[in-house]
Amino acid sequence: MIYPNNAADKLGFTDVKIHIQSLCLSDMGRQMVDKIQMMSNYDNIYKFLRQTREFKEILENDSPLPIRHLFDIKSLAEKIRVEGAFLTEAELHQVLLSLQTVFSVISYFNERESRYPTLEALFEHLPIEKKILKSIESVIDEKGKIRANASRELQEIVAGIARAEQEARKKIDHIFKTAQNSGYTADGSLTIRDGRLCIPLLAENKRKVKGFVHDESASGQTVYLEPEEVFQLNNKVRDLEFDKRREIIRILVALSNDLRPYVPLFMAYHGLLTKLDFVRAKALFAIETESEMPVLVNKAELSLVNARHPLLLLALRKEKQTVVPLNINIDEKQRVVVVSGPNAGGKSVCMKTVGLLQIMVQAGLLVPVDEHSVFGVFKQVFADIGDDQSIESDLSTYSAHLSKMKYFVENAGGKTLVLIDEFGTGTDPQFGGPIAEAVLDALNRKKIRGVVTTHYSNLKLFANATEGLENASMMFNNLEMQPMYILEMGKPGSSYAFEIAQKIGLPEQVLNAAKNKIGTHQKKVDTLLVDLERDKKELLEKKVVLDKQQRRVDVLLRENEQLKEYLDENKKAILKEAKKEAQNIILNANKLIENTISEIKETKAEKEGTAKLRQNLQQELKKHQIAKEAPKQVSKADEELKHGDWVKLTDSETVGQVIDVTKDNVILAIGELRSVVKRKRVERITKKEVPKEIRKSYSSQLTDTYASFSPEIDIRGMRGEDAVQEIEKYLDRALMMGMSSLKIIHGKGDGILRKLIRGYLSKYSQVSRMEDEHADRGGDGITYVYLS
């Protein structure tokens, strides 16, 4: 159910249907598209989505489906259902072409059995009655005309007409030629008047040729005369034409009587043709809008990945532009998304995209999203979009909004998708904001799902503090003052009212006057949102750089893995080659020794000759001599480490000092940095091995640290993220210097900062316990942290 009735129009669903209708081949297909509506039965939705996806697969990757002729054979079947009624030649030709299409389609799918199961189900158990085709083809030819041999009587009548026309033509040609020779005829040739072949005669000569005058020219100078000799023959032709018409009607009545038993089958064939045209149009629309079939679940949830508004996609494509994709998630925990941000920043498009795509999916249409997107099934879609003021109903804009809100609150439930554009507008913001907040609270208590757009700060704050609601904002480039049309979850957005006004050129004095009129609190909130937007943009840019670097690292890792695999694969081959080479060396050495001994014997042990041979032998052996392996030293990594030891990383020349040792990890101080490395990655070195400049720098830093360090830190007024970073650095220094406790002054306020800090510190194993200061000295505005 969609409420109100015009919500489908405002979300663009009606325009989507009109576009799909333009892709249909037949009126019945267009009529079926017009009946598309949102369904809530999971099985039906899934079936229609599968049908469209399978047809899309055919259009993109298979042979063309033989859909050539789609006629409304349902109305023709209804016509011959009445006893005595008959189909004309043209109507029978439409039936013939439609049945040929039906049988071709059925054969097409039979050849691809089980490849398109949901489409095959459209004509399951539907027979191919070729007897019908033969009956029609025996009477109607391929041009849609009745065959001359459809019956023996008709064949004889047609032959009689041909003979009579031939004889009449022969006679009139002779009379016309004679009249021409006598100068009786006017300019021109034989012509037809009242279905009769006539001679054009000059008016003054009409009495010179016997016959019947059928007509005369506008000037009265020419008459058209049928000669008396031809008159009887033409009457005979006309009589035969009447006989032919009667025989044709008799044949058509007989054929219609033969087809009457097949009326139910004709209706089934008609249904198949209609559905094929309908699904084909939906598949063409899916291809045109780059749509996919998402994941469908039988829950009230929604997760859009790279979603685009189909109508916006088509419109921008004509202008050679692209749509910025939308990513949004709505589920049990994050039920309602409150979208804020600048005007013309895309809030309404975001909301309408969610609503339109959800309705399209539940109507069995594929949607332009990533195929991993998830769509649930909602029983109702409630939408409040635009101005619905009514003079007839005496409703103002705000009254119309309130009427819808009343209906929403009374009828919405856990399976209702609520879409509200510019929530709370239309009246004094002082009252509109609180009323909108109350309505949102009531809807949230009913566990509805939805998207709400607003500029009201109280709704942003309410969403931030309420379970089930989630802030989101449309990103804005505050340097170029241009919207980015990207939805960012988790934080509200500024309206950038003053920034946009300044860009447009509103006088500075007017802007300053306006700024002075708004409250200090509101100014702080808006400034904070602008700062958050700027910080977010910087983080986004850094993330892009990091992603690029990560991709480079991934490439190097892959290359390294490939090299390792290559070495592992070729290790055996290399060793085999080395062994073979060693064997050759030994073999050659043995030969050399044997030859040397032999030569020594031959020289009868002369001193000079023997010395020379020994020298040659030593030189040859030195060529293959392997250097002696140095004795393996005991790894320094196996030695026990303690606080204050100097160590060096085994895989680099980096030197650091041990702060603490925990199981297999070592906490190091490397200059101003603190790092945790595995025990096996470091080896202890002596103090003498540490470069003097490092020792001197470290000693100086340690002395300065001890001199300047205070076991007390004041973080009041800091933002949560900044406070956590400051405490992290502070805790590292305290652990390095062996402090037993810390004092953190965070103030009381709403207790948010206290809760954040304690939650963060509880993750450290070195923190043994935390407790509040004495009530007289600050109480829960101060936290004592005890270190082990």
Automatic annotation (TrEMBL):
NCBIfam families in alphabetical order: mutS2
Gene Ontology biological process: mismatch repair; negative regulation of DNA recombination; rescue of stalled ribosome
Organism: Arcticibacter pallidicorallinus
Record-listed E.C. numbers: 3.1.-.-, 3.6.4.-
Coiled-coil ranges from the UniProt annotation: 522-620
Protein's job: Endonuclease that is involved in the suppression of homologous recombination and thus may have a key role in the control of bacterial genetic diversity.
Name used for this protein in its record: Endonuclease MutS2
UniProt enzyme class: hydrolase
Binding site for ATP: 341-348
SMART domains documented for this protein: MUTSac, MUTSd, SMR
